[in-house]
Amino acid sequence: MSIRILIADDHHVVRRGLVFFLKTQKDLEIIGEAENGRKAVEMAKELKPDIILMDLAMPEMDGIEATKMIKAEDPSIKIMILTSFSDQDHVIPALEAGASGFQLKDIQPDELVSSIKKMVNGESQLHPKATSHLLANLSHSSNPKKKLLDELTKRELDVLKEIAKGKSNKEIAASLYITEKTVKTHVSNLLAKLELADRTQAALFAVKNGLVK
Fold it and tell me: Same domain for 196 and 131?
């Protein structure tokens, strides 16, 4: 099955460049292009993409507001922010809006393809600058869900800490000496207990609650 991609960017040259490159890749299908956030919301509702490559600074509606609306309408759609901005004023709101990934436009093409595939498989994909902003700015934030940590088993807590480090299920399995299937079970359980949508939200939760130093 091909991964169905919607590209949202107000720069025509950027959009065409992404389309041109991604069309050459096996298992990727470009199903639409949006020139602003409002159009991205409309097309997401109509086309039901697997993933959206979302710019932040766009006319009519920016990428953060579009991400909020798309995730509210259909939480299953993955959104990767692809932008030139890496400061905390863009990173934090984008992730809190529901984006599962944050990459800069200077990313290597092959790395972008890899990130797209990993995100569709449930892994969060954060640029190192985005991760550093999370660690620096969220570790002391208050979190009303903190008491939910008490619901987790020790092993689920271990898995949560590994997720926050950006590790894949395979890497977590190797670190904790358990099978990938067991990791998947723990991930599903902890997301349910913490009332979180995906791994990126779990990583945010872990950082906010000081589980990652």
Answer: no
Q: Which of 111, 141, 171 is the last residue of a domain?
A: 141
Distance of CA 151 to the CA centre of its chain: 25
User: At 165, which CATH number?
Assistant: 1.10.10.10
Does the pTM surpass 0.90? The reply is no
Structure tokens at 205: 């939760």
Give the span between the Cα atoms of 98 and 69, in whole angstroms: 10
Q: State the residue for tokens 């956030």.
A: 37
Tell me: the pLDDT tens digits for 92-138? Answer: 788 888 888 888 888 888 999 998 998 888 776 676 555 555 555 55
Q: Check: CB of residue 198 under 8 Å from CB of residue 118.
A: no
CA distances, 108 to each of 44, 87, 103, 183, 193 (Å): 26, 20, 10, 30, 37
Range of the domain at 189: 144-209
pLDDT per residue over 191-205, tens digit each?
A: 999 988 888 888 888
- If you search the block for the tokens 């009332």, which residue do you land on? 195
